[in-house]
Write a sequence for this structure.
């Protein structure tokens, strides 16, 4: 090894150490992000093969599911082990890239693009956030397969086959590497005896694809996407180059990341760099000094862009940041192969490292943007999950905070309450304790109140007749809104002087951020307030005027509401299913504990067309309604 090569390897070790330190520092305090909450909940305790092979949307992520299940088994719901796995994935991809690129241009020239990959903050949801672990595993295994093929012996062939299987089982990016492996094999004279290297992974993936056809949510190819494919590939080239050279820094203050605002980048130079990149590729090919590896790398890259372009849509654009890292890896390998054999003078090397320095500087700034966004997400998602745990079995189990409490809960939470709580029962909580919710900033506590209220379905319903209690207190009577503490269990509000208006609530927060509904002038409404383990009461901001506050016994409000909804459901017979379904959901959410399980059994049987124990469950429901609802 020459002195220059030794210095390059030393530089690689230092760059890897710096990248690892920066990544771990950037991700401090983070928690499960976006799909990771679902992966946490779905991780199988017993490594059930069916659970491991279950598609994630349309992707096979079996290796990733094993990583998550193992981490949860060993460390519980701690995020640090997954952060470490993510960092190791980045380092492994960069190290394998360096080995492949150094074969074309030497270690000194290969180091500069390797540094770019180690600090590619533009692709924050692959390089920085552990949600990118499936992508990193797939890319690392794919690069390993290409490197193994360079051995040109039986051990290398076996390793390439196994690594291709590993890449496919990690994420769909493996399909692009499968194409590259096939091209590498088919270009050789002994290809017939080596077809198994890519045929075995292809067959295994095809079997999985056929067996999971009913479970996948495949994206359909549209004719417009096929027609627009050349433009998509060209723009993807421009977006990748823009990220690699660091010309995507946005100077607009409105683009700063924050709560529910992902990092944004300047893509105005994409068309320019796309054309420049195309010209450079054509000129490089005309040099004819490249080796056969060029077609392998180009096949992987083109296959990657084509697979995305055929199903392009929201979240699958040329500038989608999670695609930047794998595209940058392969594009830089194509560039290294086109430069094979070129003697780079010192000024050229200086220029390459200058570009790498600019890229690194800009992308480290992107690290800060990613941290700002993910730190805000983590600060809000943990109280959100704490509120879901606080509701327990009360409220709608299908409640999705990212959808039904948007603006208060991070929209990136894609799972329902029941799915998350199933994960908590298996692995423990990833939420903050209530003590930390109480000490959180005011805005976070206000958002937590809104999530809790939406999860419980806290809203006014017409108070049934006979719902007024002798224990009533008159409040208000002035020109100013009254702030009152609400009793646990439930309360009936009655307007006494013909006034009325909106009523807002708060619990952990300082602001009355929850709108319970309107108190009609001269009318009365019921608000059920379930008891839970938190000591904080709910407070209400009442409209001007004199209002009676009448406490109800614990459980009585739920029963009255259930009976009222049951009558409404009877009156809705004959309506279209889409109009009846919300009533059924409300009825289930209001079911008293005595019949909650029976009601779920009857509803599930109605959907499935039958089931065990339905007659007995219906008999118990009928007896309860006769006793408590009056028939």
């Amino acid at each position: 090894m020459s002195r220059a090569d030794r210095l390059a390897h030393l530089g690689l070790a230092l760059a890897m150490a710096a990248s690892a330190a920066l990544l771990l520092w950037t991700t401090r305090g983070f928690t499960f992000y976006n799909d990771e909450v679902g992966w946490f909940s779905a991780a199988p305790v017993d490594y059930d093969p069916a659970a491991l092979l279950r598609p994630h949307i349309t992707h096979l992520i079996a290796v990733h599911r094993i990583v998550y299940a193992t981490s949860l088994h060993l460390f519980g719901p701690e995020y640090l082990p997954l952060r470490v796995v993510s960092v190791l994935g980045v380092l492994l991809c960069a190290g394998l890239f360096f080995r492949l690129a150094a074969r074309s241009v030497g270690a000194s020239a290969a180091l500069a693009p390797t540094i770019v990959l180690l600090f590619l903050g533009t692709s924050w949801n692959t390089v920085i956030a552990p949600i990118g672990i499936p992508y990193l595993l797939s890319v690392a295994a794919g690069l390993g397969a290409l490197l193994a093929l360079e051995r040109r012996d039986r051990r290398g062939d076996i390793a390439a086959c196994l690594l291709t299987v590993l890449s496919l089982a990690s994420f769909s990016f493996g399909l692009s590497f499968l194409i590259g492996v096939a091209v590498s094999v088919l270009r050789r004279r002994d290809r017939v005896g080596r077809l198994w290297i890519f045929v075995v992974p292809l067959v295994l993936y095809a079997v999985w694809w056929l067996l999971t056809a009913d479970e996948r949510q495949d994206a359909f190819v549209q004719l417009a996407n096929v027609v627009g494919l050349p433009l998509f590939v060209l723009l993807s080239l421009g977006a990748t180059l823009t990220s690699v050279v660091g010309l995507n820094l946005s100077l607009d203050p409105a683009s700063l990341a924050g709560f529910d605002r992902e990092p944004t980048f300047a893509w105005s130079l994409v068309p320019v760099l796309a054309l420049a990149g195309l010209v450079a590729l054509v000129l490089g090919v005309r040099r004819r000094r490249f080796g056969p590896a060029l077609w392998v790398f180009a096949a992987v890259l083109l296959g990657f862009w084509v697979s995305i372009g055929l199903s392009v849509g929201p979240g699958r654009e040329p500038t989608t940041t999670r695609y930047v890292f794998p595209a940058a890896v392969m594009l830089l390998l194509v560039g290294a192969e086109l430069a094979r054999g070129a003697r780079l003078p010192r000024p050229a090397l200086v220029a390459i490292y200058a570009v790498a320095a600019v890229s690194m500087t800009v992308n480290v700034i992107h690290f800060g943007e990613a941290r700002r966004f993910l730190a805000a997400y983590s600060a809000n998602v943990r109280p959100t999950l704490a509120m879901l745990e606080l509701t327990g079995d009360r409220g709608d189990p299908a409640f999705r905070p990212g959808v039904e409490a948007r603006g208060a809960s991070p929209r990136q939470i894609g799972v329902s309450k029941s799915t998350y709580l199933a994960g908590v029962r298996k692995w423990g909580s990833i939420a903050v304790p209530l003590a930390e919710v109480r000490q959180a900033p005011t805005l976070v506590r206000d958002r937590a109140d809104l999530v809790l209220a939406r999860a419980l379905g806290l809203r006014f319903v017409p108070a049934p007749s006979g719902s007024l209690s002798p224990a009533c207190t008159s409040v208000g009577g002035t020109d100013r809104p009254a702030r009152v503490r609400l009793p646990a269990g439930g309360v009936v509000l009655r307007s006494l002087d013909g006034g009325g208006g909106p009523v807002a609530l708060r619990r952990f927060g300082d602001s009355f951020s929850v709108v319970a509904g309107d108190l009609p002038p001269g009318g009365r409404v019921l608000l059920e307030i379930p008891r839970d383990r938190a000591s904080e009461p709910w407070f209400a901001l009442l409209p001007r005027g004199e209002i009676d506050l009448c406490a109800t016994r614990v459980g009585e409000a739920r029963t009255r509401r259930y009976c009222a909804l049951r009558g409404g459901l009877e009156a809705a017979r004959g309506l279209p299913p889409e109009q009846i379904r919300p009533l059924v959901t409300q009825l289930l959410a209001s079911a008293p504990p005595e019949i909650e399980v029976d009601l779920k059994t009857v509803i599930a049987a109605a959907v499935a067309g039958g089931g065990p124990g339905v007659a007995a469950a219906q008999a118990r429901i009928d007896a309860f309604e006769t006793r408590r609802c009056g028939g």
